[in-house]
Amino acid sequence: MISLLHLDSDKKFLEKTRRYFDKQGNFSMYPVFSVQKTLTILETRKVDAIVSGQPEGTELLKALKSRDPAIPIIFFSGSAGEEQIIETLNLGADYFLLRGDESGPIVDQLQQIIGKVVTHSKTDQKMLNSYKIPDQNPDPVMRVSKEGVLTYANPAAYLLPEEWGVTGDSMIDQFKGPFEKALSNGIPLRTEMEAEGSVFQFTFEPEENKEYVTIYGND
Question: Are 99 and 174 contained in the same domain?
Fold first, then answer.
């Protein structure tokens, strides 16, 4: 489910767009009429993306720069000149789409853009999570010496499927192949493994001196 906040002063258009996205089944949209109301909502509610018209969106972009610049913002405006579009993109907007006659095809295009922008944003966030302090990382992080000894595993690593259970100082058998290849080549290696109906992605990242390989995982 993608959580959206739609900011626009045109209440009829807000309602029309809300009905469209409600029918899609995988969107939850909150219509908002003012920048101040938007900022109030964002203090207590997390959204995956914001769709906004002009000029409200420009004002919102400036306010969010000091609050949460990571939230994707897509402009969906009835009209805008080239200078306005350039200004909003320079301020950090992720996309600018002119809504034209507000027909079905243009709203379909908006839906596709939202999907791409949100997917890209979540991928970026996962990459950032991979480099957090390991103990605070919600995804598994393990460190294995060149001899194949597991020297570190964060709390999330102990929640991996039972067949990959982290026990003692032995490296997980399923990891030996990609571990040895990453260590030998000296470059990161990414692979996928399936367990308990879920597909897990792992990155094997060798240190420059090839003394250790750090394994980052997510599902």
Answer: no
- Is residue 117 located within the same domain as residue 171? no
| Per-residue model confidence as pLDDT tens digits over 26-73 | 888 889 988 888 888 888 888 888 898 877 778 888 887 666 667 888
User: DSSP string of 68-106?
Assistant: -TTS-EEEEES---HHHHHHHHHHT-SEEEE-TT--HHH
**Cβ atoms within 10 Å, residue 172:** 21
The count of domains in the chain is 2
Distance between CA atoms of residues 106 and 100, nearest Å? 8
Q: Nearest Cα to 47, choosing from 69, 71, 17? A: 71
Question: Tell me: the pLDDT tens digits for 165-207?
Answer: 566 666 677 788 888 888 888 888 888 887 667 778 888 888 8
Cα separation of 212 and 149, whole Å? 9
Domain that holds residue 31: 2-130
Overall pTM surpassing 0.90 (yes/no) = no
Does residue 9 sit in the same domain as residue 85?
yes
Return the closest-CA partner of residue 160 out of 187, 193, 129, 114.
Answer: 193
Question: CA 11, CA 137: separation in Å to the nearest integer?
Answer: 42
For residues 181 and 186, what is the distance between their CA atoms, to the nearest angstrom?
A: 8
